[in-house]
Backbone:
């Protein structure tokens, strides 16, 4: 035991194993790939150059063999879904543009064909899609309908005579928008449209639509516009696609959840149109899962740069008259960066639990509705928080590097611009948290589902009305930790994990119960009134969702810490994980201190210890902060940030050598200040 | 009286007068100027095109006559400093690049000559600088020393024989860095260097150094590098300047605070080298003042765009089966945007009080040391908070516009990138808050100044050691509102202004006292120990500074609200100002609820009312939110954001018309959902 010893002696590879998780191998293989300079965007490239470089990267990703992992063994894959996603997320280190472009090509375009197409359709398109020979778009979002996908206005009307679907954009707002691959590269698109046959609208279905010919000319009847410059992701050619009565063969409808016979008769394995729609969307959850992981990669890179710079950079001679103080030694600097490291650990480890759920559902190991719902809730909630966390982390890192952080060459500003859109795409974070909230309510009080038909469900996108069983586990939490809240909190151990969990989970339970109670009267209300009531508690519900996801992340981190502790092979690494867990937990409790106090959960005297305990944890972690960023597993070729890899240290060394030599010289000018001091002493 | 009436009937021009403040006329004149398309950056310009366009704007700014306002009447000006700055801030609406480029040219380069030069030097350079004929840089920051300006390493050694100063960069870290105007345009630079004569270093002084000849070629001995791409401000040509024994005439030393005779004898009107340095820097406070105002302009523009979009954009049919709900009607959307509007009001109104202080000091109306220190503290603290607020506001606005917010054409992402560097330049915000904190400590407990010589002062940049009198007024606050905290808080009026002020100011006083108490032992400690002690409380001190600045901003808003109320001419506008003040105050109290509870200032029952009161204020303000953004005073030519000015509304109208016509058609497809409902009813 080495109680109290700081800094701890840390083997970064032990922590790296913790962070890289179950699918470490795929992660590391792709991490190696991203060191290849040909995958990096040219520093001063034009929009066209950035796009061309990103497109070239698509081929490299396909060649890596990664894209075939999720295929069944019969189709040449290994039914490995989490392995695929884990590796794929690492593309962020090459560039987020490549990650997103590859996500569009393989995950969305290829994924739609894979998950929504039949065998014949797989045969026809899948290999070309997964090899990158057939570049494609995923045309779901419309200008007028982003979050509310069920309401897309593009129509696909079946013409039995011709055995064709007629794809049509009825008005400007129905134009497909922000579509990756559209502006430059896509030859085909999976287009989500309202399927109409025999005078009946069967809801949103996916169609494979050729959009450009082999020569790259846009197909007749299709109009493509370029979205041009965006806040980031400049390597991705987003654009708008409109259809003017464009005909595609009947066989281009992806038929897994709905098919049309030659004479126009519709059939589906799922009767309820609502459940059919959400099941279809559910197959595409991989996008959200991968964004959660991508956000972790981006956060790691930013912290890696900021922490290394903070060890090299010095400013102000505070402790010594000749040696300036390193940024990492300032308390405020520690307070700015260390909680973000603990948060990144929590997000990385929790992401691995999400990957487990994802793999269980997609591999078929657990195809239960409950597991699928857990997956959707975790993916929505984790993605929402981790993408926001990534923006906060990158921004704080950029500010912690001062002016140097603002220079494009040091990577941080570009990373911010790229990650910015992650918070509103693949599900706007606010909408995703509402989805989580509704699931919490459904789980907490089954009777509440009655109000779904009033209006609340529509309010959050109607998904929740389809589900009644949901494994949030909140109902259990309350029962098991009820006593701890009143006892352990009074103990002296502010860092007690049980107290942390009690506070965090009690908060979730109380908040959910409070909203559920408030919404009870909605059952007997009109649509308008129940929607208004729901709206009055929207903010509270979203806050409850955030509290729930924070709890899950804390629990993920806590479980992993206990695993390493129990294993007993790495005491110092277990100890630092405990510090990380405590910092994460106490930072959350500090953030919500008002709530805990207001609800009588945290005695004043105890509350006052939280700040100083956080200070102390930050100081301890700062001593091992290079180990912590080493554990992220990135090198200079990933960071590609001169200030993080020696440029600053070299300049400082040169300056110090200069002053050392100067002080030894007899003709070195004396400071006027010094002369005045000497005069005063005389 | 119209108690309880919502929405209020608001005359936006009344609120505009409140926001535009004392120097409204200059503000509006420049606001009109920024509508000129020739001042806007080309949408898809190359770096060179963006720079050229920005440089062209400099001439337009000079022609407006603005730049001469601060000159004395004898020099053709009107000694109008705040008027100058107020007008100048509005350039942000043209582009932040133009504001910064103009700030470098007129405020820093011209300002240094104006404030640090003698009459002869004014005669020689000032007119050319203020007309933009002589483009110049302000070369203070070095790669190695950003915040710690006193430690710049560039030397200016006097050669009596030649009557010249030799400017020299002794090592790479001493290279002047991030210097605006350097990479492309500057023909001269004001260079801050250690003045050495007769073997004595007299500290940092400013020298006018030619850097390019008339033809634009860089002067021999000078090396200029281009900083290239940055996170924003792409119209500003930042660069690095290094000097290799570059000679300038003796007359190029700006002599206001230090002169050298022909034979090398140094003299200064200020004996203390430390005070001399900070007095010199103090003349340049205008930069910080103007960034505070610029941050307000940027925040207004972002909110203007987001609020207008929120009124047009609809998503999800929650309250009605056919009409989708406007974003502005969602509670969470109100909660995201309304507090930012109240914060922007507080920042705008407080900025006007800062301009008053600035004008008093610079016009000579109040040249007292106290007023100057108040100015420096306000400028540092206001700038720190308002620039962070601007980033938060722009980011929230961009997210509130979803994918459309990420498109460059809608302005928000560009605005974010441009404003990003405002938080770390002209004083890194963290360093500025430490400056505020040290002033609070100095004011609170005079005896604390003893520790300055130990290390604490050096820790925050040594400025505070020079000052002992400081008008923060914190000592008074405690005495005057002590009773309110214990009485009014228990009253039912959560919105009571007295309670808000009591809570906010009690927090400041308690925090400052706590840090002061903790730092007492530093007096008898070594430099290293006292620095360590100070560092242990650095975070607390910075939090205290933030609390103090928040209080000042609340008070500014409160005072203005009372002025409009007392005037009695605009009851509805006074009422909305009260809602704005309450929302601002309660949002601050909610943010720090943990602290207030933890210190027993806020009973639980009272604390629980704060959230719902904020919800209700947000809902009320949302009803007048178009009035509130109208009050910002910007039009389509300032916003230049299609989604804010009709593009979205037009698309929605078209879609609605389509569906209206469709529903009337007999052959309109029926929804499968509807068929199933009908079948179920049978």
Residues:
């Amino acid at each position: 035991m080495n109680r109290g010893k700081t800094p701890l002696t840390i083997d970064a590879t032990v922590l790296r194993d913790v962070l890289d998780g179950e699918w470490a191998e795929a992660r590391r293989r792709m991490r190696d790939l991203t060191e290849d300079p040909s995958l990096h965007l040219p520093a001063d490239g034009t929009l066209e150059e950035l796009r061309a470089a990103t497109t070239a990267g698509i081929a490299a990703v396909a060649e890596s063999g990664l894209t075939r992992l999720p295929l069944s063994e019969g189709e040449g894959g290994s039914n490995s879904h989490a392995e695929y996603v884990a590796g794929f997320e690492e593309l962020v280190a090459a560039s987020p543009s490549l990650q997103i472009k590859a996500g569009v090509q393989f995950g969305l375009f290829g994924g739609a064909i894979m998950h929504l197409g039949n065998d014949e359709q797989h045969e026809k398109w899948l290999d070309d899609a997964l090899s990158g020979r057939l570049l494609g778009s995923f045309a779901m979002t419309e200008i007028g309908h982003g979050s509310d996908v069920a309401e897309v206005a593009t129509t696909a009307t079946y013409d039995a005579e011709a055995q064709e679907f007629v794809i049509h954009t009825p008005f400007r707002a129905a134009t497909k928008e922000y579509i990756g691959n559209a502006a430059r590269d896509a030859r085909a698109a999976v287009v989500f449209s309202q399927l109409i046959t025999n005078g009946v609208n069967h809801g949103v279905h996916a169609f494979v639509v050729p959009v450009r010919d082999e020569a790259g000319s846009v197909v007749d009847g299709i109009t493509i516009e370029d979205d041009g410059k965006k806040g980031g992701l400049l390597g991705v050619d987003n654009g708008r696609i409109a259809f003017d009565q464009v005909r595609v063969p009947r066989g281009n409808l992806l038929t897994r959840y709905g098919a049309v016979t030659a004479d126009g008769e519709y059939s589906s394995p799922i009767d309820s149109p609502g459940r059919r729609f959400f099941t279809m969307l559910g197959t595409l959850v991989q996008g959200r899962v991968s964004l959660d992981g991508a956000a972790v990669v981006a956060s790691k890179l930013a912290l890696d740069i900021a922490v290394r710079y903070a060890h090299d950079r010095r400013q102000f001679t505070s402790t010594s008259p000749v040696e300036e103080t390193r940024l990492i030694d300032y308390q405020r600097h520690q307070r700015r960066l260390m909680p973000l490291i603990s948060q990144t650990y929590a997000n990385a480890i929790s992401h691995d639990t999400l990957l487990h759920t994802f793999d269980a559902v997609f591999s078929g190991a657990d195809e239960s509705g409950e597991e699928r719902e857990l997956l959707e809730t975790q993916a929505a909630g984790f993605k929402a928080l981790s993408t926001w966390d990534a923006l906060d982390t990158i921004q704080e890192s950029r500010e912690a590097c001062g002016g140097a952080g603002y220079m494009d060459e040091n990577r941080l500003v570009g990373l911010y611009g790229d990650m910015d859109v992650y918070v509103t795409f693949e599900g706007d974070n606010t909408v995703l948290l509402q989805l989580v909230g509704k699931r919490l309510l459904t789980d907490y009080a089954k009777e509440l589902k009655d109000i779904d038909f009033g209006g609340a469900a529509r309010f959050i996108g109607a998904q929740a009305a389809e589900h009644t069983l949901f494994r949030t586990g909140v109902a259990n939490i309350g029962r098991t930790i009820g006593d701890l809240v009143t006892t352990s909190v009074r103990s002296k151990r502010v860092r007690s994990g049980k107290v942390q969990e009690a506070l965090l989970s009690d908060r979730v339970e109380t908040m959910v119960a409070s909203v559920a109670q408030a919404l009870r009267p909605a059952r007997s209300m009109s649509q308008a009134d129940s929607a208004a009531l729901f709206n009055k508690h929207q903010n509270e519900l979203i806050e409850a969702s955030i509290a729930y996801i924070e709890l899950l992340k804390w629990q993920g981190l806590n479980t992993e810490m206990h695993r390493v502790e129990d294993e007993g092979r790495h005491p110092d690494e277990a100890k630092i994980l405990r510090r990380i867990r405590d910092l994460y937990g106490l930072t959350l409790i500090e953030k919500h201190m008002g709530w805990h106090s207001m609800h009588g959960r945290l005695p004043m005297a105890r509350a006052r210890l939280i700040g100083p305990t956080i200070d102390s944890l930050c100081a301890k972690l700062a001593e091992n902060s290079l180990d912590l960023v080493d554990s992220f597993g990135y090198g200079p070729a990933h960071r590609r940030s001169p200030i993080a890899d020696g440029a600053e240290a070299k300049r400082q060394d040169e300056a110090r050598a200069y002053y050392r030599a100067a002080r030894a010289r007899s003709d070195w000018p004396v400071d006027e200040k010094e002369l005045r001091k000497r005069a005063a002493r005389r």
